[in-house]
Amino acid sequence: MNEIELTHILFVSTALFFIGVYGFFTRRNMITMLMAVELILNSVNINFVAFNKYLYADKLDGLFFTLFIIAIAAAEAAVAIAIIINLYRNYKSIDINDADTMKF
Prior knowledge:
Elements: H1 6-26, H2 30-55, H3 61-91
Helix pairs in contact: 1-2, 2-3
């Protein structure tokens, strides 16, 4: 059975990372910025799983880190969506330039 080389996996992970960074810095919509952060976290997950498979195939450390990152990303997405909904209720927009004042 042919296995995928580590360089191919790292190329996909790097592409996802830079697409996420580009999306985060160029978009002004909060939802697309949140999706860009999720792309960055997914590229990190791919790296953890790939390096775990190729360097320490008998251990599961990379997989446990990946599960931890997925849990953190889910919590981060829930909090971010709650903030975005609250900003939309107050400003009627989810553009990052419109949300320049934060009140508590």
